[in-house]
Amino acid sequence: MILRSLAIAVLTFVTAALAWAGNAWETANPIQPLPKPPLGISSSFADLEKPPTPERVRLGRWLFFDKRLSADGTIACASCHVPEHAFSELTPNSSGIHGQHGARKAPSFVNQAWTIYPNFFWDGRASSLEDQALGPIANPIEMGNTHDGMVKSLKGVAGYAPYFKEAFGTDEITKERVAQAIADYERTRMSGNSPVDRWQLAKDENAVSAEVKKGYELFFGKAECNQCHLGDNYTDSRFHNLGIGWDPKTKTLKDLGRYAISKKDEDRGAFKTPGLREVAKHPPYMHDGSVATLEAVVEHYNKGGDKNPWLSTRIKKLGLDKAEVQALVKFMEALSGEGYMDTAPAAFPQ
Description:
This protein is mainly α. It has two domains: about 20-185, Cytochrome c-like domain (Cytochrome Bc1 Complex, Chain D, domain 2, Orthogonal Bundle), CATH 1.10.760.10; about 195-335, Cytochrome c-like domain (Cytochrome Bc1 Complex, Chain D, domain 2). Helix content is about 35%, strand content about 5%. The strands form two sheets. It has a two-stranded antiparallel ribbon with strand order 1-4. The protein has a two-stranded antiparallel sheet with strand order 2-3. Strand 2 (about 245) and strand 3 form a beta hairpin. The longest helix has 27 residues, at about 1-30. The radius of gyration is 23 Å and the shape is globular. Residues about 10-15 have low confidence and may be disordered.
């Protein structure tokens, strides 16, 4: 009788402890209504073939920040896609497990719920946010896990099963479900209501300075930046060779870029046009982080890029003076808005 009473007491304590823990991590990451796109974003989630749900977004937020998805439990998606830097980073390239370094910088994914073309990563090797979410997990330099290993790790966390059921109808954990949940969280990271948006769309003439207005004129005029930086997110989602990584002595490219995927000669050294919203939040710039400042980026275009056999025909000398270069920088800085920010949950399923 004493042993039976003790067993019941222990079971009651464990049940209560699990319930408390569940409440703790649910409090740290409650279900939230889907955010509304901010001023400057003309699309909506209803435009998507499969819109995100609050339940999948909640699960995806945990997964995005959870280091247990990596092989050694040290790297999460958020380790390189840092919220305060608009989900990019301040380093020229990304760091992964065991202190390894990749050759490219983690690009921002704000406003990537809607793209002109479904090209993801600098070289476009993924055709969806779901594909992009799975890539770094299996990359031996980044998170270093196999997809099967990642799924096994999550199955070993009993607390996750109820949330997969909540998000997908059953508690089955698969790589596809992990990818969809992370992608749906990423889709909610939107930037808008910037000073430029308030000036152009809300007609607030005082939202920006005269220098920003001059930069706007140059961006869409003399500098022709909008040849590639267009749409709500200021990107055509296509690939262009700017000469970055070209070595004139050896006449070689350090990184072949899109060519490695397409095998088209014209894609040698071509990389995806990055969006410009929140661009001031994550120097250095370009796919390899080789350009330190926005001013240096404009000067790179101003000189006509770095000449090489595959230089984009859109790249030419611009003839901008110092004041015009600065005006363009101020315009890009004024594309910093709001809506994308987040912090890691204080507690995770156990």
